[in-house]
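Box 3.1 A note on notation
Throughout this textbook, protein chains are presented in two layers. The first layer is the amino acid sequence; the second is a token string describing backbone geometry. Keep the layers aligned when reading.
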Amino acid sequence: MKRALVVSVLISFVFSGVALALDFSADMVSTSKEGSFTGKIFAAKDKIRMETARSVTITRMDKNVAWVIMPEQKMYMEQPFDPEKIAGATEKMPGEIERTLVGHDTIDGRAADKYRIVYQSNEVRATVFQWVELTSGIPLKTAAEDGSWSMEYKNLVVGAQSDSLFEIPAGYAKFVMPKMADVM
């Protein structure tokens, strides 16, 4: 569950700004040293839904909340979410220091500009490559310069998304972690 929330926040960070200017859905492929996983992503203005094999994470920047939905248990967890710390209102990544166009490429059959981006998160300075689709401005892929991780959208469909995708399903109960004092 925690991994799903972390991945959702990472997606919000990596694909912030212009990606949320358009409504879209896509298959998502994430790779790292730990392996790879696939999922689905749905975006509508200030809302993101990410589906993986075990959970669904809905990030509602308009409500400053992220929900991790556990379909098998018919439960959800709620976490406060500060969009100011994650998704910017501009095309830049949060903490971006430098953006350099390094070329043009094709990602999943779509023409894209490839950028080298240097950003700072807390005390860490990092460099990524980002491929931004020419027609929509959606970042189709972001990868660490050292190749340690990447996030990519495949089968991108730009268009309106149903409001129901960004709500907690009816009949789900809120999961609340017990306080340590209550456990002892």
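The chain is about 10% helix and 50% strand. Residues 1-9, 12-19, 86-90 have pLDDT under 50 and may be disordered.
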